[in-house]
Amino acid sequence: DYIVLNCAYDMRVVNGETISVFDDVFYAEGVFKNGVAVCDGYSKAFSYLLGQVGVEASLVTSDLLCHAWNLVKLDNDYYHIDTTWNDTGMYGKTTYAYFMLSDTEMFNRSHNVNNTKDWAQEYDATNTRFDANNNAWINGIDNYLIYKDSYWYTVGLIPEDYMNFYLYSYA
After folding, report:
1. CA gap 93, 142 in Å, rounded
2. 13-29 in b/e burial notation, b at 16+ Cβ within 10 A?
3. Which of 70, 91, 136, 162 is most buried as measured by Cβ atoms within 10 A of its Cβ?
4. CA-to-CA distance for 31 and 45, rounded, in angstroms?
5. First-last CA distance in the chain
6. Which one, of 111, 33, 129, 116, lies nearest residue 70 by Cα?
7. Residues pairing with 97 in the sheet
């Protein structure tokens, strides 16, 4: 969430401007130093943060999409997380549409061009426990998620009483 909430996508790329490959937006420094990056910077910053807490993560790239995201190992399974596409562009808001997905789900959610998958990663992401049909719990979450002991936690408001909070947990 930190990256998505504290970094803006560099619109120079969208506007067709040429950017030097040495520009900070392609590296974690773009996220941490300037708060502006492209997918490469988002992904490298995310890998760095995960590495700092002992979570294995690698970059996945697609030439056809001209895009990069992460493959993350959690509980001995691999999942795709795309911090760039989880960035809504609205201050203080994130989405989890590209969070903890299998290869198949990632492909089906538009990580393909003309129904072609040109991305490859070191490990397959075959576990579907967080995919669309199994991932309904994550819809509408607009605050932080915490993972501990094989459970995801988030805090929400009790609908009847906006002053009380409760803890959601999902296996």
Report:
1. 7
2. eeeeeeeeeebbbbbbe
3. 70
4. 7
5. 20
6. 111
7. none
| Tokens found for residue 66 | 């001209």
Distances from the Cα of 28 to the Cα of 10, 12, 157, angstroms: 13, 18, 34
DSSP state of 132: G
Question: Rounded distance, CA 18 to CA 30, Å?
Answer: 16
Burial of 31 (0-12, 13-18, 19+ CB in 10 A): buried
Output phi, psi for 32, to 5 deg.
Answer: -80, -35
pLDDT digits (tens, 9 = 90+) for 24-83: 999 999 999 999 999 999 999 999 999 999 999 999 999 988 899 999 999 899 999 999
Q: What is the DSSP string of 2-24?
A: HHHHH-EE-HHHHTT----TTSG
* Dist CA 82 CA 118 (whole Å): 16
Say if residues 72 and 81 touch (Cβ distance below 8 Å). Answer: yes
The position carrying tokens 């607009």 is 142
Question: Which residue is it, tokens 């950017």?
Answer: 19
What confidence tens digit (pLDDT) does each residue in 90-114 have?
Answer: 766 777 788 889 999 999 888 788 8
Which amino acid appears at position 48 of this protein?
Y
Which amino acid belongs to residue 70? N
Is 83 in contact with 57 (CB distance < 8 Å)? no
Backbone angles phi, psi at 28, to 5 degrees: -60, -30
